[in-house]
Design brief:
about 70 residues; mainly alpha; transmembrane helix; DUF2839 domain-containing protein; DUF2839; transmembrane; membrane
Length: about 70
């Protein structure tokens, strides 16, 4: 008998329902964990693009517009 069949027999009606990934944090289910990963990945990409935009502004746009001068 496979593990999933044993689990289904043990859990009965609760089989297939989302259970907490971390027992002491009851609201932290698999779905919440996936949502957190999705959100943090989007935030990381936004941060990367903002940092790249700031670098381009500081390195190229600012000096070209005469806002400041780079020291070599």
């Amino acid at each position: 008998m496979g593990e999933s069949k044993r689990r289904k027999e043990v859990l009965g009606e609760d089989y297939g329902k989302s259970e907490p990934l971390i027992p002491w944090i009851p609201f932290w289910t698999k779905k919440k964990a996936e949502q957190f990963v999705t959100l943090s990945t989007k935030a990381a990409w936004i941060g990367i693009f903002v940092m790249a935009g700031l670098w381009v502004t500081i390195r190229f746009i600012g000096p070209a517009l005469g806002w400041w001068q780079l020291i070599d």
